[in-house]
Amino acid sequence: MIDALASAPHYSDHLSAVLNALPAGVRGSVMTTLPEKECACPTLVASYGDLKRAQNAGRSKVAIMEHGSGQSYGGRGISHGSYAGGRGREGASLFLHPGQHPAARDRKMYPGARVEVVGSPFLDTLPKREGTPDKTVAFTWHFNGAVCPETKTAYPVFFPEIVKLAGRYNLIGTAHPMLWNHGRTGSRIADRYRKYSIEPVESFTEICRRADVLIADNTSAMFAFAATGRPVVVLNAPWYSRKVDHGLRFWEASEVGVNCNDPAALGECVEEALADPPAQQAKREAALDLVYAYREGASQRAADVLMDWMQ
Q1: Strand pairing class (170-173; 27-31)
Q2: pTM of the predicted protein model
Q3: Please, are residues 306 and 23 in contact by the beta-carbon 8 Å criterion?
Q4: Which terminus of the chain, N or C, has less C-beta within 10 A?
């Protein structure tokens, strides 16, 4: 029996797809906490924090699955455990990754562990656009991470320009789960959207059902959305340094969408993205190939690896 530990809903979204692909006889539950007792029960997690929680609860056989695109910040010499190749992940004996970039980092740091490239099971669950395209523009933000400048949100410089688009497009806004309910004054970002007559949509799955284009700064959501065959606008905040090379979003896969470096040019970038000419589509496909080794069947592929790992 394989259990999954998910302390947040966006981790559960990824893990559930894999559990559902397992044979019924070995399919456990997605739990938010684990009972504290020593146990060799196979446990699947999707975050560094949950890896540590599983260890602290006494689980000795743990697999960790990347819940995003596999972004890391090694270009600045950062080895935070939340990212592939980071320190403190030795509690996992199996690493499941969407592509070669994060897999190579974990292989180098943990040569004794099993590292497998399976794709992103989350992609198996995402819907394509439903209904008739009507210039519905979605946007999302990364939380204001403290790891390095590239983990900070682009919200301060780009949100005022998004507000100006409200009359031209049907705007729907979401945000990283760690930002969605956060606010120093207690005001949720959803309330801020409503203030400017922008519809807040918490669910990324709902974004995928409704949006024709996604505006995003630094988030795996841009790659997941693009993998459904739709255009993206990539926001480059002034503090994102071109002098560092983290890989993927920074910068080899950054052309997954139309890059917007100047907030004043956002409207033009949205129109360019919506046009989605063949050259732009080709760049998107090339970027997605860097992120995802496979774009279909990842849930079953991960389940097969887990079954083998259990034995």
Answers
A1: unpaired
A2: 0.96
A3: no
A4: C
List beta partners, residue 242: none
Cis? peptide before 180, omega within 30° of 0: no
Q: Rounded to an integer, what distance in angstroms lies between the CA atom of residue 172 and that of residue 138?
A: 5
Phi and psi angles of residue 16, each rounded to the nearest 5 degrees, phi first: -60, -35
CA–CA separation, 135 and 174 (whole Å): 17
Pairing of strands 213-216, 136-139: parallel
CATH number of 136-291: 3.40.50.12580
Identify the band that residue 45 occupies on the pLDDT scale cut at 50, 70 and 90. Answer: very high
User: Cβ distance 84 to 102 under 8 Å?
Assistant: yes
- Spatial distance between the Cα atoms of 264 and 261, rounded to a whole number of angstroms: 9
Q: How far is CA 42 from the centre of its chain?
A: 24
Q: Which two tokens stand for residue 292?
A: 């995802």
Section 217-231 average pLDDT: 97
